[in-house]
Design a protein that fits this description.
- This protein folds into two domains: 116 residues, Jelly Rolls (Sandwich), CATH 2.60.120.10; 104 residues, Sandwich (Jelly Rolls).
- Helix content is 11%, strand content 41%.
- The protein has two helices and 22 strands.
- The strands form five sheets. Strands 2, 3, 4, 6, 7, 8, 10 and 11 form an eight-stranded antiparallel sheet that branches. The protein has a seven-stranded antiparallel sheet with strand order 1-19-16-22-14-13-12, with no helix packed on it. It has a three-stranded antiparallel sheet with strand order 18-17-21, with no helix packed on it.
- Strand 13 and strand 14 form a beta hairpin.
Length: 259
């Protein structure tokens, strides 16, 4: 019975993000744990790095801090060290600001929430999804200001595909019920998508095989534990469960199978 239940839960999770796939979790978890051990010299700066624990940060309990670059501010959501290694954050660039050239030793993932983000390779308007694989580098800036969701140094070592999905090139597909889904990236256990919820949509209660991470881009996301307005970040551990719904049109970024 236990195996049947887990299979059912995983099937619901995969249908939720329509066509995204996953496989065994062991390699991914082992790599994550080893990377934390190798890069963390001082526990003082660690934040939300216990992936067995659920975390929710709404806009009203997020702390913005200035970065070493003028005009660039951040909300650290999870990090392993002060200015290096695994970090997930919201980042704002004031108009005309820039950040020094830097290398992505284990990759960088960006979703542009507001404004236009730029680097020497192009301009990326709100709604753009970017993956800069391990070994790449760039010098980011903005002309008129922007806000980003950034996951740094979290790629699996074999995941080397660069990705840029702009708003005008997006191919949405039908999900369960009235959901619309845009697959952004899939590699091994990890799947990432945007999910658009119509007004008053209710999804099935389901478990998170390999965990789930959500950014509420617009609207109001709801489950039995609370309400999460635009700008909220949620991280749910492996085998946690919830019963999500919305009362208004809502757009979320979702990553599963990576915890």
């Amino acid at each position: 019975m236990g195996n049947d239940c887990r299979s059912c839960d995983r099937n619901i999770e995969l249908r939720y993000i329509q066509g995204l796939i996953s496989s065994t979790l062991g390699d991914n978890v082992a790599k994550c744990e080893q990377y934390i051990m190798n890069t963390s010299d001082n526990n003082e700066f660690q934040l939300n790095m216990d992936f067995t624990q659920g975390v929710c940060l709404r806009p009203d309990n997020q702390e913005w801090v200035t970065s070493p670059a003028d005009g660039v501010s951040r909300v650290h959501l999870e990090r392993v060290a002060e200015e290096s290694g695994h970090v997930t954050s919201f980042v704002t660039f004031a108009p005309g600001s820039s950040f020094p050239e830097h290398c992505h030793h284990q990759g960088e993932e960006i979703y542009v929430l507001e404004g236009v983000f730029s680097d020497e390779y192009g301009d990326y308007p709100a709604g753009t999804y970017i993956r800069n694989p391990p070994g790449t580098k760039h010098t980011p800036f903005t002309k008129n200001g922007c806000k980003l969701f950034v996951k740094l140094e979290q790629f699996q070592s074999e995941d080397l595909e660069p990705v840029i999905i702009r708003p005008d090139g997006q191919q949405w597909t039908a999900g369960i019920g009235g959901l619309k889904v845009l697959s952004l990236h899939t590699f091994g256990t990890e799947s990432t998508a945007l999910v658009a919820w119509p007004k008053n949509e209710v999804f099935q209660k389901h478990r998170h095989m390999g965990g789930e991470e959500i950014v509420v881009i617009s609207g109001l996301f709801i489950d039995e534990y609370g309400e999460y307005p635009a700008g909220s970040w949620l991280r749910s551990p492996h085998m946690s469960q919830h019963f999500p719904r919305v009362e208004e049109e809502t757009l979320i970024y979702v990553k599963v199978g990576h915890l």
